[in-house]
Specification:
- The chain is mostly helical.
- The chain contains ten helices and no strands.
- α3 runs antiparallel to α4.
- The longest helix has 35 residues.
- It is globular.
- The N and C termini lie far apart (55 Å).
- The relative contact order is 0.14.
- GO terms for molecular function: L-ornithine transmembrane transporter activity.
Length: 321
């Protein structure tokens, strides 16, 4: 008896890549990890540059209320009147250059790291929904953590310079040795003062931001993809909620970076929060929340608008190529 062989067709050598499913309005597209990292980097730089331009005056008021001893008992309007009276309008833009520089750099790093990480999780268990979360994927959480770590490395020294400028201090330290390399090392160490609270602040804030965005694009797509309202919901609302959760750590970060003494030493972020609550009350951990919320909503809403405009343009250009 002859057994007939059934011919098996071999797959075409140039089979198209299988694109993963996505939702309109996501912060990462359907490209591979490299493509999403590059697109996120460039679009994120626009996001990061737009944010301080739109909200720096609010940030100056917030920083003075949190970190400058002479303003710790003042209301936001007291600080506004003081700055305008003593320095004029330009006083609200002190520290803008490092904020603008840092914003564009770590905006690109954050969204590039998120896009690349999110895409790299394709085909792994992280691409699947986490049980009991309503469809939240592990890739979103992983992207948030990688973004927070990336942002902290870039942001810490630039934020210290900005805060020192906003509070009328120099960020440079006095030479403590006759050796140039020793002094350079001490200066770098000073610039990275506050790295711990910066990382934890970024993790809480960015994690919340990315997770809420993921839920929004899946559950209320008509709202988040509206031409004008959408970016302010995704950028303004989601980022502001993230800031609210991370605000006590932001207060600690501002104080640590504004301090030029060794008062804070090697104390952990949790210990510093406890000390502030014990000595000054719980309300102090939300110092500057008013101008901070205004700054977050305005700057992140405007930045998200610019991000999506450029992101969609680049995704279309990549697809056509």
């Amino acid at each position: 008896m002859t057994i007939a062989r059934v011919p098996v067709s071999s797959p075409p050598s140039h089979a198209p890549d299988v694109k993963r499913s996505s939702f309109k309005g996501e912060l990462a597209g359907k490209g591979n990890a490299t493509t999403e990292a590059v697109v996120g980097l460039l679009a994120g730089m626009v996001y990061g540059a737009t944010s301080p331009l739109a909200g720096h005056p609010f940030d100056t008021v917030k920083t003075k209320m949190q970190a400058q001893a002479s303003h710790r008992n003042c209301t936001s309007m007291d600080v506004v009147r003081y700055v305008y009276k003593t320095e004029g309008v330009k006083g609200f833009y002190r520290g803008l250059v490092p904020a603008l520089t840092g914003g564009s750099i770590f905006g690109g790093i954050v969204l590039g790291a998120y896009g690349g990480t999110f895409a790299a999780c394709e085909g792994t268990i992280l691409a699947e929904p986490i049980p009991g979360t309503g469809g939240l994927r592990g890739a979103v959480v992983a992207g948030g953590i990688v973004s927070a770590a990336s942002r902290s490395v870039i942001e810490t020294p630039l934020a210290l310079i900005k805060i020192r400028r906003q509070t009328g201090q120099s960020w440079l330290i006095s030479p403590q040795s006759q050796h140039t390399l020793v002094n350079a090392g001490l200066q770098v160490k000073e610039l990275y003062k506050g790295m711990g609270p910066t990382f934890w602040r970024s993790t809480f804030m960015l994690g919340t931001f990315f997770i809420l965005n993921d839920y929004a694009v899946r559950l209320i797509p008509d709202v988040v993809n509206a031409p004008v309202v959408g970016p302010f919901v995704k950028g303004g609302v989601c980022a502001t909620i993230g800031w609210l959760l991370a605000w006590p750590i932001e207060v600690v970060k501002s104080r640590v970076q504004a301090d030029r003494t060794s008062n804070y030493g090697n104390k952990t972020t949790i210990r510093l929060i406890r000390e502030i609550v014990k000595e000054e009350g719980l309300a102090r951990t939300f110092r500057g929340i008013g101008p901070g919320i205004c700054k977050s909503f305005v700057s992140n809403g405007a930045a998200m608008f610019m991000f999506h405009f450029l992101h969609e343009f680049m995704e279309k250009d990549e697809s056509s190529s």
